[in-house]
TrEMBL record:
<dbReference type="InterPro" id="IPR027417">
    <property type="entry name" value="P-loop_NTPase"/>
</dbReference>
<dbReference type="InterPro" id="IPR020588">
    <property type="entry name" value="RecA_ATP-bd"/>
</dbReference>
<dbReference type="GO" id="GO:0003684">
    <property type="term" value="F:damaged DNA binding"/>
</dbReference>
<feature type="domain" description="RecA family profile 1">
    <location>
        <begin position="75"/>
        <end position="224"/>
    </location>
</feature>
<keyword id="KW-0238">DNA-binding</keyword>
<dbReference type="Pfam" id="PF13541">
    <property type="entry name" value="ChlI"/>
</dbReference>
<dbReference type="GO" id="GO:0000725">
    <property type="term" value="P:recombinational repair"/>
</dbReference>
<protein>
    <recommendedName>
        <fullName>DNA repair protein RadA</fullName>
    </recommendedName>
</protein>
<keyword id="KW-0862">Zinc</keyword>
<dbReference type="InterPro" id="IPR004504">
    <property type="entry name" value="DNA_repair_RadA"/>
</dbReference>
<dbReference type="GO" id="GO:0005829">
    <property type="term" value="C:cytosol"/>
</dbReference>
<dbReference type="InterPro" id="IPR003593">
    <property type="entry name" value="AAA+_ATPase"/>
</dbReference>
<keyword id="KW-0234">DNA repair</keyword>
<dbReference type="Pfam" id="PF13481">
    <property type="entry name" value="AAA_25"/>
</dbReference>
<keyword id="KW-0227">DNA damage</keyword>
<keyword id="KW-0378">Hydrolase</keyword>
<dbReference type="GO" id="GO:0140664">
    <property type="term" value="F:ATP-dependent DNA damage sensor activity"/>
</dbReference>
Length: 466
């Protein structure tokens, strides 16, 4: 009996072998192809066993704890990057020692934006180090000439070794460090090629440690997977202070920059940029990009105001309804959610008695903007109804509202801000759901109609005939 108890204690002290996900840390007794925690494929690897728990004696205190009211808050003040639209997303600028991860699809403009940010920061008198692992120094220089990003205090290094990059930081002590990208830098202390999970974790941890030690603002470029997620270990998003996503259609010039994580500012701001041959330019008033000519009244078009973060953008929705040539009508969308358009078509058929089931339906947005919020339902419905009836909406009309399955219009958030933007751009009347706006929120010169049901909006703006 004593022998049995002793063997049990001995086996309990022995490390147990198992498997762990390199992305999220999920553990399993046996190997599986797909992680049960994060769902990633091929990330579960074998581990030799967990070391026995160890205790550590208390060490000396280098910095005694302070009362929270006595902590100097000026250390977390943001400094402008010189790019107002980028500052908007960051919450005013970059904080000393902050590390921001900038992600986006290949060719969308990440390197162009950060090179412009680096040059503008250098012109403000800061020392900037730009390390690239994807291109040669000559290639970056050519891009800098093209976008006018040459500056006296901007240093450039083409490195792929982590130790050499850290040595460059040691030599220059920059105020701003740009790394393009974290997947192209490797450490000789870690096995594997650049870009694998272990390498990305080591490179990110080393750069973050250097940034915190030197109060060095840091911008890191990160690749994305084919599913749109950030490539590398999931812990990378937790290590950095700010995560910024770069969005946009490669066939259009508009680029949207938004923060999905920000320890120093809001996450509901959006920066708008125009990517052209001469570089990337901030757009303080991008609404005009999403509107076609407003001089003519054309059936099948409607205008709405969407909220990107806290920024209102006036967008145009276009629709074409034609008699179906085949047995099954086609439903094609661009810039709008396909399932929501199908729902709006069903509501038009059921509650407005419009014969949409006999027609092919094509719905698109102008300028490549993507409308994902439910507040654009009413614009899509009126554009389709206008095309089917071959009657345009009255000139100068903007519509906002979510369409419910019962045919009702539901109130949406931020209607007052949307109406203010519409009034600023010269629209004269607006249609919104009942109870979504108060009299004091209506801007001068804008007549607002509050409607309860979709059928009432269609009859009031288009009429009942075809």
């Amino acid at each position: 009996m004593t022998t049995t108890s002793s063997s049990r204690r001995k086996s309990a002290r022995q490390p147990q072998s198992g498997h762990r996900c390199t992305e999220c840390g999920w553990t399993s007794v046996k190997w599986v192809g797909r992680c049960g925690g994060c769902g990633a494929w091929g990330t579960v690897v074998e581990i030799d066993g967990a070391p026995a728990g160890r205790t550590r004696a208390a060490g000396s205190v280098a910095r005694p704890a302070q009362l929270i009211a006595e902590v100097d808050a000026t250390a977390a003040e943001a400094a402008s990057t010189g790019v107002p639209e980028f500052d908007r997303v960051l919450g005013g600028g970059l904080v000393k020692g902050a590390v921001a991860l900038v992600t986006g699809e290949p060719g969308i403009g990440k390197s162009t934006l950060l090179l412009d940010v680096a040059a503008r920061a250098a012109r403000l008198g800061r020392t900037v180090l730009y390390v690239t692992g994807e291109e040669s120094a000559a290639q970056v220089r050519l891009r800098a000439e093209r976008i006018d990003a040459l500056a006296d205090n901007l240093y450039l290094a083409a490195e792929s070794d982590l130790g050499t990059a850290l040595a460059q930081i040691e030599r220059l002590s920059p105020d701003l460090f740009v790394l393009d990208s974290v997947q192209t830098i490797s450490s000789t202390e870690v096995d594997g090629a650049a870009g694998n999970v272990s390498q990305v974790r080591e490179v990110a941890a080393s750069v973050i440690a250097a940034a915190k030690e030197r109060d060095m603002s840091t911008l890191i470029v990160g690749h994305v997977t084919k599913d749109g997620g950030i490539a590398g270990p999931r812990v990378l998003e937790h290590l950095v202070d700010v995560v910024i996503t770069f969005e946009g259609d490669r066939h259009t010039r508009l680029r949207l920059v938004r923060a999905v994580k920000n320890r120093y500012g809001p996450t509901d701001e959006v920066g708008c940029f125009d990517l052209g041959e001469r570089g990337i330019l901030g757009l303080t008033d991008p609404s005009g990009l999403f509107l076609s000519s407003r001089d003519m009244e054309v059936p099948g078009t409607s205008v709405t105001v969407t909220l990107e973060g806290r920024r209102p953008l006036v967008c145009e929705v276009q629709s074409l309804m034609t008699r179906a040539s085949a047995g099954s009508p086609r439903r094609t969308t661009s810039g709008l959610d396909h399932s929501r358009i199908a729902m709006v078509l069903a509501v038009l058929d059921k509650h407005v008695k419009m014969p949409v089931g006999e027609c092919d339906c094509y719905v698109s947005t102008v300028g490549g903007v993507r409308l994902s919020e439910p507040a654009s339902d009413l614009a899509a419905a009126l554009a389709m109804a206008s095309s089917l009836a071959d009657r345009p909406l009255p000139r100068g009309t903007v519509v906002v509202g979510e369409v419910g399955l019962a045919g009702e219009l539901r109130p949406t958030a931020g209607v007052a801000r949307r109406l203010a933007e519409a009034g600023r751009l010269g629209f004269t009347q607006a249609v919104v759901p009942v109870g979504s706006v108060e009299a004091g929120d209506i801007p001068p010169g804008l007549q607002v109609h509050q409607v309860q049901r979709l059928a009432d909006a269609v009859r009031g703006l288009i009429g009942s005939g075809r």
